[in-house]
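Inverse folding, one chain.
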C-alpha cells in the first residue's frame, strides 16, 4: 500500500515540466536609459520599476483531444527583467512555466508587450524541455499593447510544408499571413505590419498646384515600380493621385535601425557642409563677393545662400 501511494505521488509530480524562457531585448543606440524610458517624464520613470515587461504564451503543435478541432490552451507566464545583469548591448527577461507532460511539442510563442514603449525582441530561448533547448528567433519590434492589442506570434525555427503544418498551428499560421498581407483597405498606421503594394501615384501635389501633377507609375500594363500601400485619400483635384503626407508608411521592421538613421543624418549634414564651406570661403576671401553692408550679412541668415548645383 505504501509503494502504491509513492507511485501515485511520483506520477503526479511527473505531470508537469518546469520550463524557463530567457527573452533577449536589444538596446537601441541611445542605450540603457532610453530603453527603460528614463527621460520621458513620470511615465518613463514608473516603467523603470515595472519588472513584468512581457506576457508569454507557449502554444502546442497538437490539438486538444478533449475538445476536437480546438487548440490546447496556451501556457502563460510573465517575463521579468533581471536587475543585476551585465549590459552588453541587451536586456534579459526571464519567465518560468509549468508545462503539462502531455502538452506536446511547442510550436509557437505569443508575446504581449505590457510596457508603453516599443521594444526590439531579439530571441527567446526555452530550456528544460525533454527534447532540449529551443531558440525562437524574433528579430522584430514589439509594439505596446496600448498601441496595438493584438499579440505577436513567433514560430519556432522548424519549417513545414503547408500540407504538413501541425494542426495546432494552422490557425495561427493563417492569422499571421493575413496580418502581413492585409485586406487592401484602410489607411496604414505606424503599428501595422502589412506588406501590400500600390502604384506610385503620390509623386505630385495637384491640390496645391495642377502644374505639380505627375503621371502614375505602375499599373496593369507596367506593374513596376511599386511602393508600400498607404491608403491615404485621393487628391481633390485629381482622383488618380493620392494625397501626400508628412510621413511615409514603412513596416516597422523595415525602417532604418537607430545607428543607421543617425549615420544617415550625419552623412547628409556632411554633404551640405562640404558644399557650404567652399561657398562661404569664396564669399569671404573674394573682394568682389565680399559683404558690402551689414544687411547683406543679415540676409545670409534670413534667406540663406545659393548652393552650387
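Residues assigned per position:
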Amino acid at each position: 500500500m505504501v509503494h502504491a501511494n509513492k507511485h501515485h505521488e511520483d506520477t503526479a509530480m511527473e505531470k508537469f515540466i518546469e520550463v524557463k524562457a530567457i527573452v533577449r531585448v536589444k538596446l537601441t543606440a541611445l542605450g540603457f536609459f532610453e530603453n527603460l524610458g528614463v527621460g520621458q517624464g513620470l511615465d518613463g520613470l514608473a516603467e523603470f520599476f515595472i519588472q513584468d515587461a512581457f506576457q508569454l504564451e507557449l502554444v502546442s503543435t497538437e490539438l486538444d483531444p478533449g475538445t476536437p478541432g480546438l487548440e490546447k490552451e496556451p501556457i502563460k507566464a510573465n517575463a521579468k527583467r533581471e536587475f543585476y545583469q551585465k549590459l552588453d548591448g541587451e536586456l534579459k527577461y526571464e519567465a518560468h512555466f509549468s508545462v503539462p507532460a502531455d502538452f506536446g511539442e511547442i510550436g509557437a510563442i505569443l508575446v504581449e508587450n505590457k510596457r508603453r514603449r516599443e521594444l526590439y525582441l531579439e530571441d527567446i530561448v526555452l530550456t528544460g524541455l525533454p527534447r532540449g533547448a529551443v531558440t525562437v528567433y524574433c528579430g522584430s519590434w514589439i509594439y505596446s499593447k496600448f498601441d496595438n492589442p493584438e499579440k505577436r506570434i513567433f514560430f519556432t525555427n522548424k519549417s513545414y510544408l503547408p500540407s504538413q503544418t501541425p494542426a495546432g498551428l494552422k490557425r495561427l499560421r493563417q492569422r499571421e499571413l493575413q496580418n502581413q498581407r492585409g485586406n487592401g483597405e484602410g489607411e496604414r498606421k505606424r503599428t501595422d505590419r502589412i506588406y501590400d503594394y500600390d502604384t506610385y501615384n503620390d509623386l505630385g501635389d495637384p491640390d496645391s498646384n495642377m502644374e505639380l501633377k505627375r503621371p502614375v507609375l505602375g499599373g496593369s500594363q507596367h506593374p513596376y515600380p511599386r511602393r508600400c500601400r498607404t491608403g491615404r485619400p485621393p487628391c481633390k483635384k485629381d482622383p488618380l493621385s493620392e494625397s501626400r503626407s508628412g510621413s511615409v508608411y514603412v513596416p516597422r521592421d523595415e525602417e532604418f535601425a537607430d545607428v543607421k538613421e543617425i549615420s544617415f543624418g550625419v552623412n547628409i549634414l556632411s554633404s551640405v557642409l562640404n558644399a557650404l564651406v567652399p561657398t562661404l570661403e569664396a564669399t569671404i576671401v573674394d573682394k568682389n563677393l565680399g559683404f558690402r553692408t551689414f544687411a547683406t550679412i543679415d540676409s545670409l541668415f534670413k534667406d540663406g545662400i545659393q548652393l552650387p548645383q
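Residues 126 and 132 are 9 Å apart (CA to CA). The longest helix spans residues 258-285.
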